[in-house]
Amino acid sequence: MSKLKIAIQKSGRLSEKSLELIKECGIKIPNGGGKLISESTNFPIEILFLRDDDIAKYVEQNVADIGIVGENAYLEANQNVDIVEYLGFASCRLSLAVSKNTAYTDISFFQNKKIATSYPIILQKYLESKNVQANIEFISGSVEIAPSIGLADGICDIVSSGSTLMSNGLKEVEKVMDSQAILIASPGLADEKQAILQKLLFRIKAVLRAKENKYILLNAPNEKLDEIVRILPGMKSPTILPLVDEGWSSLHSVIQEDKFWDIIDELKKAGAESILVAPIEKMIF
Ligand code: PRT
Ligand code: ZN
């Protein structure tokens, strides 16, 4: 029987979360310290551990069938592979930055300037879209030191918290793109492999949906229930169960975590008490 080969980063910012996602899909991977290939014991999948820069290329060349990479690495690799799912982790942005003392007005600042980056392809396309002509200096690492050693007037690099820029005396001036981990696939997968991918995707979606949502339980006086139900943007009508205390009910529903913080005060004002919010492991419709 054929197996689906998935490439994930061997060691780096994507590794742990990629493996965690696979495991949350109920796929068992033996702990093979330092191995380059690992085979699941309960799902037709083989894991290839690679450098993130090689993943899109290997998926394009069918060395792997699918892979998990940062959107930035996928775009920079410029390969003919499909994005099949946005995975929501390793969020960051690719930005242009200059020395903090530089008087910066707009993107035309970079006209004929030197920009150091590990993302020459993405940067070139971005500058073209802004009608700016600059000299792109490719550096594979430690891009942030380029301005201070006089190698470039600015940099284009990944930013997450912004502390690397700050500690190198730089300021972010333009966002080139947002990025997050994505699942990519080779466009011409054979039917058997496509079927395994669909099975995997079904599980991934259930896991991702569960992460975005929380199970909410609260108690409220019966006469307040209508108002509380109106406040709750639940997925369907909530479950309402009578409490032993006369005139009170317990209400159960599912709520998007980010929305929860917006409505918590409203819920309390409307009379909700003993509010419990619990994680959901899988969500299947
Ligand atoms: O060895 P290999 O080639 O596989 O890994 P790598 O060193 O090239 O990549 P790695 O592990 O650093 O990053 C993998 C992917 O994680 C990237 O392609 C991004 O999609 C994503 N990601 C998310 C990040 C960051 N956040 C991030 N903060 N990648 C890099 N950084 C670096 C950035 O380059 C800069 O040096 O962190 C610094 C900025 O972070 P802040 O928090 O100080 O702003
Ligand atoms: Zn890399």
TrEMBL record:
InterPro entries: ATP-PRT_HisG_long, ATP_PRibTrfase_cat, ATP_PRibTrfase_CS, ATP_PRibTrfase_HisG, HisG_C, N-reg_PII-like_a/b, N-reg_PII/ATP_PRibTrfase_C. It is an enzyme of class 2 (transferase). It catalyses: 1-(5-phospho-beta-D-ribosyl)-ATP + diphosphate = 5-phospho-alpha-D-ribose 1-diphosphate + ATP. Its cofactor is Mg(2+). It is found in: Cytoplasm. GO terms for cellular component: cytoplasm. Its EC number is 2.4.2.17. Residues 210-282 form the Histidine biosynthesis HisG C-terminal domain. Residues 51-205 form the ATP phosphoribosyltransferase catalytic domain. NCBIfam families: hisG, HisG_C-term. Belongs to the ATP phosphoribosyltransferase family. Long subfamily. This is ATP phosphoribosyltransferase.
